[in-house]
């Protein structure tokens, strides 16, 4: 049985069979060519006007009733939590530091409609790699289009510009069957104004095959109520093993749109720097205060190595 969440809404686990792709003998491609020419890059950049960014919604709001069979979690009131409060179940990040520039919103077109996720700029050989969730690059058998990363997005402001994807990637297991255990994606973005991404915004560290049960911080741009996607939100606490997947869990009230935001080990509140070791992936309806992310093992590492060489 394959568990499949209503991903960006982070609302429910549903067990569905529709939307899975079938692997061929050679296996489906894990890489999608995006805006590779100057003309394509300009078209994608022009597509994402400030108004279109503000109107982009989490994918769950675009799914059909057959795809989304669980009701949304009742919205609460968004909170502001001092970054020195650990653990934190969710609140606006007000601490500044490196995290502000390296975390950003992800925008793309899904089945012809505009949607959003989150992502993190990480250190990489090509200085252009963004790590996110698998469903933030591909869902229901197709890779998303018009994919961009907007670091430090803040209430419509794009202080570091809009970075178009040259290629997007997902793990083989995600591409083949959208297996929740491997909900990991990445993008290589094109240079902007002659500069590479991490030369402009910096890059967070990334690690794989780390010990479970550690203290972690999660970041993202939730856009479903009570949030609106306008600001960076965080959660923090000791993670635990997920019980319906091989992933990790954390107490966190972030909602749809936060998918793909980074989970950090060894995060410093004073500098805003840490080591990415998972991403926001899904929630389950009957425990809305828990967030889950995939364990970063060998397959996530292979994905990262492929992306940073791309």
UniProtKB/TrEMBL annotation:
Alphabetical UniProt keywords: Signal
SUPFAM superfamilies, per database record: Trypsin-like serine proteases
Signal peptide residue numbers: 1-25
Top-level taxon of the source organism: Bacteria
Gene3D superfamilies: Trypsin-like serine proteases (2.40.10.10)
Listed PANTHER family: PEPTIDASE S1 DOMAIN-CONTAINING PROTEIN, SERINE PROTEASE
Protein's UniProt name: Peptidase
Organismal lineage: Bacteria, Bacillati, Actinomycetota, Actinomycetes, Propionibacteriales
């Amino acid at each position: 049985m394959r568990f499949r969440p209503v991903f960006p809404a982070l609302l429910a686990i549903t067990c569905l069979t529709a939307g899975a792709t079938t692997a061929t003998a050679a296996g489906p491609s894990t890489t999608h060519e995006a805006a590779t020419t100057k003309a394509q890059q300009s078209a994608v950049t022009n597509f994402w006007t400030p108004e279109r960014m503000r109107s982009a919604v989490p994918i769950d709001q675009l799914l059909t009733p057959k795809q989304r069979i669980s009701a949304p979690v009742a919205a609460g009131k968004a909170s502001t939590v001092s970054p020195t409060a650990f653990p934190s179940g969710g609140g606006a990040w007000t601490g500044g530091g490196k995290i502000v520039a390296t975390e950003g919103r992800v925008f793309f077109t899904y089945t012809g409609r505009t949607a959003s996720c989150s992502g993190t700029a990480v250190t990489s050989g090509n200085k252009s790699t963004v790590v996110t969730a698998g469903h933030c690059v591909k869902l229901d058998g197709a890779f998303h289009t018009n994919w961009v990363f907007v670091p430090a997005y803040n209430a419509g402001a794009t202080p570091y510009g809009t970075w178009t994807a040259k290629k997007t990637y997902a793990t083989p297991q995600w591409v083949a069957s959208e297996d929740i255990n491997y909900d990991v994606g990445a993008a290589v973005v094109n240079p902007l104004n002659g500069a590479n991404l991490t030369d402009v915004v910096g890059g967070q560290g990334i690690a794989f095959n780390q010990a479970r049960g550690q203290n972690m911080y999660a970041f993202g741009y939730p856009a479903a109520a009570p949030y609106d996607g306008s600001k960076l939100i965080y959660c923090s606490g000791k993670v635990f093993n997920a019980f319906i997947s091989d992933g990790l869990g954390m107490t966190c009230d972030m909602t749809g749109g936060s998918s793909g935001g980074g989970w950090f080990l060894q995060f410093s509140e004073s500098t805003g720097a840490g080591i990415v070791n998972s991403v926001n992936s899904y929630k389950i309806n009957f425990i809305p205060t828990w967030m889950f992310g995939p364990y970063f093992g060998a397959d996530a590492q292979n994905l990262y190595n492929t992306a940073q060489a791309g």
